Amino acid sequence: MQFSFDISSSAPAKAPQGGQSGDTGTGQLILGVLQQMLDAQKQAYQEMTTLLREQLNHARALHAENLARWRGILSRWEKDYPELPANCKRVYPVMEKAYLSMLNNLSTDLADQGEEAFDSEFALQDFLDRNGMKIGQFAHLLSVIGPISEAGGNQNPGGEKK
Questions:
Q1: How many whole angstroms separate alpha carbon 125 and alpha carbon 29?
Q2: Sequence spans of domains, the chain
Q3: pTM of the full predicted structure?
Q4: Crossing angle of the two packed helices 133-151 and 20-76, in degrees rounded to 10
Q5: What digits encode the pLDDT tens for the residues 86-101?
Q6: How many CB atoms lie within 10 A of CB 96?
Q7: Distance from the Cα of residue 77 to its chain's centroid
Q8: Which H or E run includes 107?
């Protein structure tokens, strides 16, 4: 983040007239610069807040769109797979716990190995071969099962709305 301060727009500093009055002019100049810095920080904060609010609204819209898409899919296939949303809702916490367990084991192993965990190309490749696909695929499964369980909403195992 870059800031630029324009001190030329502040009141021009008065030439010191000796003794104490020179200190007052310098003090006024410093106060002016500090006020500009404060104004710039306030503006930057407001811009960041606006940007974050826009990003949050965008993420909410994408989530709602994704849920609507899954609701459409589930409603089209409700007769063929009436228990799918309820089953997904039931297994999601189990899968979540298994995933976190895998991540915990991985992080514990790496912490035990210390800085030598990736000290060679072979060690890095071995780590990826042992963990990469398994964890990546499990994360993908969670990203599919989660929205289905959420989109299923208040359906019971028979597929009827409560």
A1: 60
A2: 12-76, 81-162
A3: 0.61
A4: 80
A5: 999 999 999 999 999 9
A6: 14
A7: 33
A8: helix 84-113
